[in-house]
Write a structure and sequence with these properties.
By secondary structure, the protein is of the alpha/beta class. It has a domain of 76 residues: Sandwich (Immunoglobulin-like). It has an 8-stranded parallel β-barrel. The chain is globular and about 80 Å long. It binds alpha-D-glucopyranose. Alpha-D-glucopyranose binds next to loops.
């Protein structure tokens, strides 16, 4: 059904000649540093003064000293990378950007193993590699590495900091950027700062939020939600050594750090600069929403969060402009744009943010076979700054929280809670007609909320037991879902295993410390036997891999998908067909997605109205399939990627 015609090759531009007879003298220069400092100083000092008052200027000055040291120590290679990216500030927005995210050990054993797998990533078309937390965590349960015990060393079983630097170089040579997590809301209870606090050092007690009794914790709890109500209820943990309640938003071994203390800002600035000098290109700001606490609120996304992020971003622009920030803010759509910066902060905060709403709506469309809610929700998101980039994704290491707004649901005649409940049941395979094989995550008995774990393939009901006809449909649905992720604009990030339609790990609970957290079901070890079949069109993995690489290849030829441009959603005619439109100066791009398992029409007057009547599909190289009724007909889960300039 989806035979791929070859896409026209891009015109290859010969490499520029290298200057000859010129020897570099080292790429750092006092002038360059001074020029960048002058340019970005206001962005550093203003937000720090806004947050820390009189102490802001002293802090900003301290950060400049750190930046200057880091700048001097930065390698020539990385200085060259800084310069390249200053000349190419939209590098993250190019349609050639394709991400892949994986746990180092589950993907390739260790860091050297990852280096050996670079050809596999290149085969897929990856240019951006997010390796899940790999800095030294606490022993035992560490929330997949999100409980960091030492930010300056690598998890010993994965390698050393020298291995990390070597991998960064190898990735850079292969045209890939390295993305690492920066966990900045909390540290492991075993981190040196926490140990010193427990030993009674007052300077380090100020790094955390501790309370001798329940008065203040109870007052906060009145408005605080629970992140892990199931295995880590509440937001505070009693510590015997301190004889105090410690703020622990996530697990009890993850101590929230006190960002109202300027010393904490300087610590993290130094950590950022250190990672930058090891060759990290993008820092994923983990749980960034939570770093500022304010009584009477949900303590997420307070204005100080964005001001502090802006200051840290300015710091990298001065010391290491090759480095960008990605906000991990899984928050209500109305709050999300602030992570890119709004008003005076526009474009000055994070460069990238997860498009959680798109991800949720893709799964919602697939379960319901209807697009009206997605249209409502996606139209409601305000425009982002043109310099900012969405990170689009179908699955990641986390569960899916069913972030459907009650108002959006009501606007299309649905009941928010019931639709969320339907989605959780559907993907757990507990709804009539569903073949999904996901798992319920964090059932909150109080609110009735349920979240979902599961790999893309398992959520689509695809594994070795699936009947042949259902396999074809599930693969078509997977292709359609990936097409939406790749055709939206932004960096699409593929979660490891999904490129091979790898199902859930049936033995997820058998690993020590994983038994209570079923997110491990969709964090399988990459099945390298399966990967060897990726070019075999008769295998499921081969079909999934070919569908994805065809999409990636087509995308790389479409300047229309540059991430500076917003996607708008066209009016709905058929409830099972989503139509997206991107107006780029080079021309119009229209994406058409049948989210159902039936043939569906795209109405003729719309096709004409959008100027696409003569269009050829980039994915199949075929003209539109006009029916005798004057409409274009889409096969089950069919996709069209059309431009108005390709005849
Ligand atoms: C982020 C991570 C999640 C982790 C949490 C605490 O949300 O994605 O996996 O549990 O932060 O660090």
């Amino acid at each position: 059904m989806f035979a791929m015609a070859p896409i026209r090759p891009a015109v290859r531009i010969p490499a520029a000649p290298r200057p000859i007879g010129w020897t570099g003298q080292g790429k750092a220069s006092a002038e360059m540093f001074a020029a960048r400092l002058e340019r970005w100083w206001p962005d550093l000092v203003e937000p720090l003064t806004a947050v820390y008052g009189d102490r802001g200027l002293t802090l900003a000055t301290e950060l400049v000293t750190l930046a200057e040291d880091a700048y001097r120590q930065r390698s020539d290679r990385l200085h060259a990378r800084d310069l390249q990216r200053m000349l190419h500030p939209d590098w993250l927005q190019e349609p050639t950007m394709v991400g892949y995210a994986a746990y180092t050990e589950r993907f390739a054993g260790d860091l050297r193993g990852v280096a050996e797998r670079i050809p596999y990533l290149a085969d897929l078309g990856v240019t951006y590699l997010h390796l899940m937390p790999l800095l030294k965590p606490r022993e035992g349960d560490n929330d997949g590495g999100y409980a960091v015990a030492d930010y300056r060393s690598v998890r010993p079983d994965l390698g050393t900091t020298a291995d990390l630097e070597a991998l960064a170089e190898q990735l850079h040579d292969a045209g890939m950027s390295l993305v690492l997590d920066l966990v900045l809301n909390h540290v492991a209870r075993e981190h040196d700062w926490a140990q010193r606090a427990r030993a009674g050092e007052s300077a380090y007690l100020d790094y955390f939020y501790t309370y001798p009794d329940r008065d203040i914790p109870d007052a906060y709890e009145r408005t605080l939600p629970e992140v892990f109500p199931d295995f880590a209820p509440g937001n505070f943990t009693w510590d015997e050594d301190l004889q105090a309640w410690v703020w622990t938003t996530f697990n009890e071994f993850q101590w929230d750090v006190n960002w109202s203390n300027p010393a904490v800002v300087a610590e993290y600035a130094s950590i950022i600069l250190n990672l930058a000098n090891r060759g990290v290109d993008v820092l994923r700001l983990d749980a960034i929403a939570f770093i500022w606490k304010r009584m009477g609120t949900d303590c997420q996304g307070e204005p100080e969060v964005h001001l502090i992020t802006q200051a840290l971003r300015a710091l990298t622009r001065i010391a290491c402009p090759a480095v960008a920030f990605k906000a991990e803010a899984i928050v209500a759509p109305s709050k999300l744009l602030a992570y890119f910066g709004r008003g005076a902060l526009a474009g000055k905060v994070s460069d990238l943010a997860y498009h959680n709403s798109l991800m949720v709506q893709i799964w919602s469309m697939l379960a319901s076979g209807k697009v009206s809610l997605a249209v409502q929700a996606l139209r409601g998101l305000p425009a982002k700054p043109s310099t900012a980039t969405w990170l689009t994704y179908l699955r990641c290491h986390d569960d899916i929280g069913w972030a459907i707004m009650d108002d959006d649901a009501a606007a299309v005649g649905l009941h928010g809670w019931s639709h969320r409940r339907f989605l959780a049941n559907w993907y757990a395979g507990a709804h009539p007609g569903s073949r999904a094989r996901g798992l319920v995550f964090q059932h909150n008995a109080e609110t009735g909320d349920m979240r979902t774990s599961g790999s893309a393939a398992s959520l689509l009901g695809l594994d070795e037991h699936t009947a042949a006809d259902d396999v074809a449909l599930a693969l078509a649905a997977l292709r359609m879902a990936h097409a939406l992720v790749l055709g939206w604009g932004g960096i699409p990030v593929i979660w490891s295993g999904d490129e091979l339609a790898q199902p859930n790990d049936p033995n997820w609970a058998s690993e020590p410390a994983h038994e209570e957290d079923n997110r491990w079901a969709h964090r399988p070890r990459l099945d390298w036997d399966r990967a060897t079949t990726r070019h075999d069109p008769a295998s499921v993995a081969g079909r999934a891999f070919a569908d994805l690489t065809d999409l990636i290849r087509a995308r790389s030829h479409l300047p229309h998908l540059h991430a500076s441009i917003e996607t708008r959603v066209d009016d709905v005619d058929d409830p099972g067909v989503l139509v997206t439109v991107r107006d780029h100066p080079v021309g119009r791009f229209v994406g058409v997605y049948n989210v159902t398992a039936q043939w569906r029409p795209w109405l003729g007057h719309r096709v004409h109205g959008l100027g696409m009547a003569e269009a050829v599909d980039w994915l199949t190289d075929s003209p539109l399939a006009w029916g005798g009724d004057g409409h274009v007909w889409l096969p089950p889960y069919g996709v069209l990627w059309l431009t108005d300039d390709r005849h």
